[in-house]
């Protein structure tokens, strides 16, 4: 496995691969890898000759300086995991390599970003849009892999690929969970022992809400009961629980309004902010 920190060296490697007609799959990450990331690598390996994983904690998508400072960085361990997973190349640039100057571009994703993560983390999707576009332009992958755990990110990247005619196929991969149901996430490493023990309730509450909505309970009442449940749970501070149309990400009032419904949640558990969702 090759590790690149400079854009020209990575581009040169990829040019050689393209000259041999090799197909390229890209998995953008911020590192601190877990089995969720490895599932994206595994899928990409089946569908491509060459698999490139980028590891870059992108400062432009963080609106909270403490979140950026405390984001886990484990490059050496990540490289061992990627090597074992059969990844072909890692791209781990410095901030200066990616942003010799602070980008001035702003991207407006319209209604897709006025809700949930976009509403709670101002500027977040602008930063995601810029870095993902840069990665697409640098790597020019045939396919790019994203996890459903970050559902709003997936819908925003999908829209960007269409709007800007990026010549690639977007592959959305299912959320991988711990055996107790907690969605795998790099930020889980920041949970204390007690917080970690309580964290699986997030998925349980999602499943319970799904059952109620599918059994015909009123969506507004389900939302209120979820808010109440979190209110009395020690250590949790619910940011949002939304019932949305999976495509538009706009809140719905009955499941008949959407082809597919998504239940999306973000909650603080101690100082750590976790997100999850289920689609049905
Ligand atoms: N549990 C998971 N299952 C499947 N894909 C995942 C999972 N967790 C993250 N991914 C995907 O991996 C890619 C890189 O995500 P990222 O590096 O931000 O990891 P993360 O675990 O989501 O970290 P965090 O949420 O703490 O920022 C994204 O496309 C993300 O959706
Ligand atoms: C897509 C991404 C790597 C862009 O920095 C990040 O938002 C993530 O890890 O999901
Ligand atoms: N996993 C999405 C990236 C972020 O939380 O900033």
TrEMBL record:
Location within or outside the cell: Cytoplasm
UniProt xrefs under CDD domains: PanC
Residues annotated to bind ATP: 30-37, 147-150, 176, 184-187
Transmembrane segments: none
Keyword Ligase found: yes
Binding site for (R)-pantoate: 61, 153
EC number annotated for this UniProt entry: 6.3.2.1
Keyword Glycosyltransferase recorded: no
Catalytic center residues: 37 (proton donor)
Keyword entries, A-Z: ATP-binding, Cytoplasm, Ligase, Nucleotide-binding, Pantothenate biosynthesis
Entry's Gene Ontology BP terms: pantothenate biosynthetic process
MF (Gene Ontology): ATP binding; pantoate-beta-alanine ligase activity
Reaction(s) catalysed (UniProt annotation): (R)-pantoate + beta-alanine + ATP = (R)-pantothenate + AMP + diphosphate + H(+)
PANTHER family with a match to the protein in the record: CYTIDYLATE KINASE/PANTOATE-BETA-ALANINE LIGASE, PANTOATE--BETA-ALANINE LIGASE
Family according to the record: Belongs to the pantothenate synthetase family.
Record text on subunit structure and interactions: Homodimer.
UniProt cross-references to NCBIfam families, sorted A to Z: cyt_tran_rel, panC
Function according to Swiss-Prot or TrEMBL: Catalyzes the condensation of pantoate with beta-alanine in an ATP-dependent reaction via a pantoyl-adenylate intermediate.
Protein name (database record): Pantothenate synthetase
Organism in which the protein naturally occurs: Dyadobacter koreensis
Gene name linked to the record: panC
